[in-house]
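Quick one - inputs below.
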Amino acid sequence: MTRIAIIGAGRIGRVHARSVLAHPQAELTLICDPFEVTARKLAAEHGAAWCLDPAKVFVSEEVDAVIIGSPTRFHVEHILAAIAAGKKVLCEKPVALDLAEAERCLSELGDNTDVMMGFNRRFDPTFSEIHRRVVDGEIGDLQQLTVVSRDPSAPLAEYVAGSGGIFKDMTIHDFDMVRFFLDDIVEVVAMGTNVDEAIKAEGDFDQVMVTLKSAGGRMATIINSRTCAFGYDQRLEAFGSEGALSADNLTATAVRQASRHQSQAKSRVMDFFLDRYVDAYRLELDAFLAAVQEGRPMSPSLRDGYEALRLADAAMVSAHEGRIIRL
Amino acid sequence: MTRIAIIGAGRIGRVHARSVLAHPQAELTLICDPFEVTARKLAAEHGAAWCLDPAKVFVSEEVDAVIIGSPTRFHVEHILAAIAAGKKVLCEKPVALDLAEAERCLSELGDNTDVMMGFNRRFDPTFSEIHRRVVDGEIGDLQQLTVVSRDPSAPLAEYVAGSGGIFKDMTIHDFDMVRFFLDDIVEVVAMGTNVDEAIKAEGDFDQVMVTLKSAGGRMATIINSRTCAFGYDQRLEAFGSEGALSADNLTATAVRQASRHQSQAKSRVMDFFLDRYVDAYRLELDAFLAAVQEGRPMSPSLRDGYEALRLADAAMVSAHEGRIIRL
Amino acid sequence: MTRIAIIGAGRIGRVHARSVLAHPQAELTLICDPFEVTARKLAAEHGAAWCLDPAKVFVSEEVDAVIIGSPTRFHVEHILAAIAAGKKVLCEKPVALDLAEAERCLSELGDNTDVMMGFNRRFDPTFSEIHRRVVDGEIGDLQQLTVVSRDPSAPLAEYVAGSGGIFKDMTIHDFDMVRFFLDDIVEVVAMGTNVDEAIKAEGDFDQVMVTLKSAGGRMATIINSRTCAFGYDQRLEAFGSEGALSADNLTATAVRQASRHQSQAKSRVMDFFLDRYVDAYRLELDAFLAAVQEGRPMSPSLRDGYEALRLADAAMVSAHEGRIIRL
Amino acid sequence: MTRIAIIGAGRIGRVHARSVLAHPQAELTLICDPFEVTARKLAAEHGAAWCLDPAKVFVSEEVDAVIIGSPTRFHVEHILAAIAAGKKVLCEKPVALDLAEAERCLSELGDNTDVMMGFNRRFDPTFSEIHRRVVDGEIGDLQQLTVVSRDPSAPLAEYVAGSGGIFKDMTIHDFDMVRFFLDDIVEVVAMGTNVDEAIKAEGDFDQVMVTLKSAGGRMATIINSRTCAFGYDQRLEAFGSEGALSADNLTATAVRQASRHQSQAKSRVMDFFLDRYVDAYRLELDAFLAAVQEGRPMSPSLRDGYEALRLADAAMVSAHEGRIIRL
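Output:
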């Protein structure tokens, strides 16, 4: 049984709390959030204690592992404190907004492998099956990767303001997917546009396309949009010398409809990550707990978090300065 | 080059005329229809001669083969006359409305194999691919066959009155499909209902379900409706010990739509047999001409026509008398 | 919080135990099974007490509701005892093997509505969505229903011997589906065949096709097989005057593959009911607990259990005597 | 009836010859090819005259319109000569290998609108249906376009040497598709890689990814490969504010297979453009003949040919020099 504290009782904190509660090898012992009402509420729902100050988490004897779901600007501080206190860490993406800060965290931790980055999509059953089958050689040599990721609706301008921009906030998941499948990326080019005036006013893009090339001569393209009328569009295609494997979107049921005007219509694509990735979060926790309990190195690692951030940083420069970035 | 006459310039006659015109090994020489305006029009469109009296077709020196698309009550007469005159015959289904008449035709012709029955679906690329793969053993032993056949809209009551009833007019194609895939049928049971009052008034059903069992212990079910809001529903599933092969409906294009309310919607299913089976009619003519030119026995044969009619007859008795028929 | 006892710690008992454990409004208090090792093991896994004698369940003060997963021959006895003791009941299908016994149970209970029958498929998200959309009028008047149900592999001959035959053991679910969608059934006809010699030796069929007609002139067909190479085949099509709604099979992930030989290949269909219907069992328990807690009549009811058995009985007579049964 | 000459009796010339032969409003009168055996053979097959020298085509009284399928380096010369002789022209893509030459052709012809460029995909039923539905507003404002185009197998190195490179030879179709859907392109960036050593040795890429931005702030991405194990991969997705429309690949039949290992498998994707775009070539000819017979301006126009070439040129510079090109 691993005793877990969650820092941050917001949306993602609640997702993790639910996964922990349902997991037979985990116990939720402590919820930490600066807003008392939020902390208290989530703690009550899951029979956990609560606190306002993260320092309490790190000194607690009742905590073996910490899930960090605090705002990104605190991630590095919380990671370092947790590791210093001997806790295992599962930290939400991105590791930091500032690449130098992520680099500092990496260098301070040296060869410590007790930090896992919360790239949940690696654990999604559909994406992980494709990864496994690619690794097993089913499509021969992987040559091209296409990642489509569109959110159902744009975040508020306030959120955007503190998000670090679309590449670090949203595309970061897709950069990790590209790194999950491909070898080292050596070139990045990105273009961005706006359909959302509020996001444009923040100086951020709400639609981007990114192309990446690896050292081994493979290419990937990422297609993003902050809005998508038909739901949470999460697809991927791995193309290789012997074939292709692709991920369809998910729907809540397997109903098809034929009417006077159309045929084979499925219902709407699942709406957002809480539904779409419920299994991914559960399996991510599984993997985290297995690593904790068997004392194995975490994966995706802090370095994976740093490298994804590096790609996000490069893409941001590329899109804003209009040039291809070589890494 | 095979010189072809068509008897009957109605809907099905036009389909055949178009196929003949497009075929490099066939020449359309004569159109016969009791309605001069109809005969003349179709003949003019295809550069053929025309006549009102079928007798002219049989004595013509310009005709090697006859496609019989006349009303069903003339089929046997036209088949016998054509064969007597040394012509090859492609006859539309059903061979007759009356089983005894079909039997007489069969016995008069003895071992003559120059008559092909127009069971076009055997030549549909999708159905014939399934048949070939079943024969090749891909699904192991065939055990269950499901045939779904629904027309987009019900025929006029006048048509129904002379049609011989749904089993001989519509289900006849499905009985042939069952015979195409299965061994000899030994049991038939059918149920019928009505959603169309005009058809009910004619004493006919407009929706039927038929179950059949073969000597080898295989079963088939046929699901029919005279109306189908979403188009011309033509599907089939062959289920065997190692898997299943099934035929989707066809749509005019490969467009998919995702909207606020649904995903993966294809356009409407193709509307009727002229569109759905255009390739089947073309390939049927191909097979007919190949048999003519190589002097090979025709398939599906007159006997196939008789046997399908026998099943239709049994199903009609079953549905009207409420009992299982043993053949 | 509803305190639940489970009678029968076999396969289906375990399914229910897992659902109860995961349910926030339910507590598993007692497991009853005549085999001590089985009872003790399941109880230990879920922190419940255990007993060997069902009588202990009915007198227990710690039990509000009983889930009956004992062998079918004990269902009626356990239902009557539980109701007499003031417990609520969720009973697995079928209610009995003998129709007269089911009828007796029904008449003894009179207007008691505290028994729910475990027709889990009514709660499957895909099937229940189709049902809701049919009720909402999306396909106009429902006219034809097709239910396909094939198990991945045949049960042992010993199981078959005590199962009451395929119609009462397996098709019973499909009869309930037909009743869920259609009005009162007035005619049943069934045919059966064998591909499994061991089942044949028991005098039972392993493949059946059933056609049913309702008082309102609707038809349904059921296609069953005890074996299916490609997994647990669970499909349904509701056809109406304005269109059709159908249920695809489920696969574990949304991966598609394109290779040198094929395209759009999904992985294998889910293998059996523990996977395929995990949500259905959970939602069934939800509905049961809601009815318990709100004191509402249960649905599907004991009468639903009786009526499905009546259809199974009729189908068995039909298949064995070769005649259409009128109800 | 429009009398047509074809210059170039190679692969694409044969495609057009077949379309012309099957068209009721067209007559194939003359085939021109420098290889006598090739010219003679195609002419004989279609009952046309033949010649070795294109000059004969332009002076012929028997020719109303010329289909130019000669090697690309002769396109401009043949276009200018045909127009000077008063013929209508359907010219294969690209208009030239050299942008300046295409520009010269455009300026010489001034406002002449009698030249149609052979961008056959605009006429493909699936792509043109998507275009029509986008124009009709079905997906709101078009925001992102994804074009996937992969050939089943790489051309010979000799062909590559004279092809002008992948962007002008293959991607040119996709550039036209982007222009068909989007407003004026203002930015282009391309990356290329090699999996084929022979093509690499020619200094060309065999896999490319291109991103484009329009004046109106829309983006498109093109994914190309000279080889594709699973067939001729031709897909497109138009994403807009209200939804998306996408084009599936085509298969020869509608067969699906379920086996022990997978489900819903369709057969292999159609293999190459002769099969995949047979309808597109036919409908392209339809549009050409309609414009000829009604004296309407041709579309896609010579300017469309020039603009697509301009994008190809920009992409080539981008990929070779590693920079974003602004137009």
